C-alpha cells in the first residue's frame, strides 16, 4: 500500500474546482454564496452505479 505524502499547509497547492453551468465551464470559487451552497449539496454519481440501479 502506498503511503500518502503529508505537506505543511504553506507548501500545499490550492485545487480549483470547475463545473459546467448552462453549457459552459466556470470555477466554483466564482459563484455567489447561494450557488456555492447549491453546488455543495449536489449528489455525485458514477455511470456504473446508475446502470446497476436501473437493471
Q: How is this structure best described in words?
A:
It is a single chain. The chain has two helices and two strands, in the order ββαα. A hairpin with a 2-residue loop joins β1 and β2. The protein is 31% helix and 15% strand. It is flat, with a radius of gyration of 17 Å. It has 55 residues and is α+β, with helices and mostly antiparallel strands. The termini are far apart.
Task: Describe the protein's topology.
Blueprint lengths: L17 E4 L2 E4 L5 H9 L5 H8 L1
Q: Major sheet, described briefly?
A: 2 strands, antiparallel
Identify the overall geometry. Answer: flat
User: Mean pLDDT score, rounded?
Assistant: 85
What Rg do the Cα atoms give? 17 Å
**Fraction of residues in helices?**
25-40%
- What is the SS-derived class? alpha+beta
List keywords for this structure.
15% strand; 55 residues; 31% helix; alpha+beta; two-stranded antiparallel sheet
Amino acid at each position: 500500500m502506498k503511503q500518502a505524502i503529508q505537506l505543511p499547509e504553506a507548501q500545499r497547492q490550492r485545487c480549483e474546482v470547475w463545473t459546467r453551468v448552462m453549457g459552459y465551464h466556470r470555477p466554483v470559487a466564482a459563484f455567489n454564496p447561494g450557488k456555492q451552497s447549491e453546488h455543495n449539496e449536489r449528489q455525485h454519481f458514477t455511470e456504473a452505479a446508475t446502470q446497476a440501479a436501473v437493471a
